[in-house]
Amino acid sequence: MSDDPFHEAVEALRAIGMYVEPTGDDLSLWLVNGEEMSDAGLLKLAALLGLVSGSATIQ
User: Fold this and answer.
1) What is the pTM of this model?
2) Each residue's pLDDT tens digit in the chain (59 positions)?
3) Fewer CB near the last or first residue (10 Å), C or N of the chain?
4) 54 belongs to a structural domain
5) Angle of helix 5-15 versus helix 39-48 axis, rounded to 10
6) Residue 16 and residue 51 in contact, taking contact as beta carbons nearer than 8 Å
7) What residues make up the domain containing 32?
8) Is residue 14, in this structure, part of any structural domain at all?
Protein backbone atom coordinates (compact mmCIF):
# COMPACT_ATOMS: atom_id res chain seq x y z
CA MET A 1 0.00 0.00 0.00
CA SER A 2 1.04 3.56 -0.63
CA ASP A 3 1.65 6.13 2.07
CA ASP A 4 -0.30 8.60 -0.09
CA PRO A 5 -4.01 8.42 0.82
CA PHE A 6 -5.09 9.88 -2.54
CA HIS A 7 -3.14 7.29 -4.51
CA GLU A 8 -4.60 4.54 -2.32
CA ALA A 9 -8.15 5.86 -2.86
CA VAL A 10 -7.65 6.18 -6.63
CA GLU A 11 -6.28 2.66 -6.94
CA ALA A 12 -9.08 1.23 -4.77
CA LEU A 13 -11.79 2.95 -6.82
CA ARG A 14 -10.20 1.80 -10.08
CA ALA A 15 -10.01 -1.76 -8.72
CA ILE A 16 -13.80 -1.88 -8.47
CA GLY A 17 -14.16 -0.65 -12.04
CA MET A 18 -14.60 3.10 -11.60
CA TYR A 19 -13.05 5.54 -14.04
CA VAL A 20 -10.82 7.88 -12.00
CA GLU A 21 -8.52 10.50 -13.54
CA PRO A 22 -7.24 13.93 -12.52
CA THR A 23 -8.94 16.73 -14.45
CA GLY A 24 -5.55 18.16 -15.40
CA ASP A 25 -2.34 19.18 -13.70
CA ASP A 26 -4.29 20.17 -10.57
CA LEU A 27 -4.52 17.01 -8.44
CA SER A 28 -7.15 18.61 -6.21
CA LEU A 29 -9.86 17.97 -8.84
CA TRP A 30 -10.77 14.51 -10.12
CA LEU A 31 -13.12 13.03 -12.68
CA VAL A 32 -14.85 9.97 -11.24
CA ASN A 33 -17.22 8.16 -13.61
CA GLY A 34 -17.90 11.46 -15.38
CA GLU A 35 -18.46 13.47 -12.20
CA GLU A 36 -15.98 16.13 -11.10
CA MET A 37 -15.06 16.04 -7.44
CA SER A 38 -12.48 17.45 -5.09
CA ASP A 39 -9.65 15.44 -3.59
CA ALA A 40 -11.59 15.40 -0.31
CA GLY A 41 -14.65 14.07 -2.13
CA LEU A 42 -12.54 11.33 -3.68
CA LEU A 43 -11.31 10.23 -0.25
CA LYS A 44 -14.84 10.38 1.18
CA LEU A 45 -16.23 8.24 -1.65
CA ALA A 46 -13.55 5.59 -1.18
CA ALA A 47 -14.12 5.59 2.60
CA LEU A 48 -17.91 5.40 2.28
CA LEU A 49 -17.54 2.41 -0.03
CA GLY A 50 -15.32 0.77 2.58
CA LEU A 51 -12.30 0.72 0.28
CA VAL A 52 -9.97 2.76 2.48
CA SER A 53 -9.94 3.59 6.15
CA GLY A 54 -11.41 6.97 6.87
CA SER A 55 -12.45 9.23 9.63
CA ALA A 56 -15.14 7.98 11.99
CA THR A 57 -17.10 11.07 10.98
CA ILE A 58 -17.33 11.90 7.31
CA GLN A 59 -18.85 15.29 6.70
Assistant:
1) 0.82
2) 456 888 999 999 999 999 999 998 877 899 999 999 999 999 999 999 999 987 655 55
3) C
4) no
5) 50
6) yes
7) 5-48
8) yes
